[in-house]
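Q: Can someone sanity-check these two? First one:
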Amino acid sequence: MDADQKTQSQPHFSHPSEAEFARLLDYYEIPWEYEPHTFVLQEDEEGQIIEAFTPDFYLPEQDLYVEVTTMRQELITKKNRKIRRLRERYPHINIKLFTRRDFRTLLARWGMIERHDELIGQKALQHEPDRSNDQQPDR
């Protein structure tokens, strides 16, 4: 992250795990953008957006979008479907789904397992917003 990015205020993250992921990226000085693009996944016959998807992070140096999700497993199926549709419609886009299991591994590796409940446990699950109807066009 360059000096200009560090002086900007942090975005309002949708979930504590997103804020923690951003801190990790900052620690390793990996430039990132928060929710910079929304991708149209499906339109009706009149061109109205039916379904869209906004990945959480974009890492410009890696040309990689990252979706951080600590949702319950049954809701991850919806995210996987959206990512599959994104890959079908935009094959040039690189995206990685960072799951609850990935986050648990990260917490253990960094000696932060005591923050499990706050970041991916029951407290975090109660905080999880429903963005399944995300329908904004690319900004």
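And here is the second, same format, sequence then tokens:
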Amino acid sequence: MFKQLHINITLADDLILMPKYQKMIKALLSNKEKLQELANTHLNENCSAVILKKLPEKLGDPRKFLIPCGFSELKCKALADLGASINLMPLSVWKKL
């Protein structure tokens, strides 16, 4: 999308039109080492996956998304976060449908 974006404006016009950024742009242009440091950004695995258009491997359906939990004498089941959008409703509402 941004590969075809062309902005035809001189640096002088840019500095006049954006007085808020004038000091920052002048500082970056006068200190090229700092500019190179800002240009090299380390990406985490989520960012690089988006840039490289690599999707994570799909896993099979675990069927149950309840995890049995035990706290001394209390036994319960907890919902596991599968990373998917799941809509839940009470059983009483489901039976009325």
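A (reply): Looked at the second one. Helices lie at 11-17, 22-30, 32-39, 45-51, 91-96. The two ends are 45 Å apart (CA to CA).
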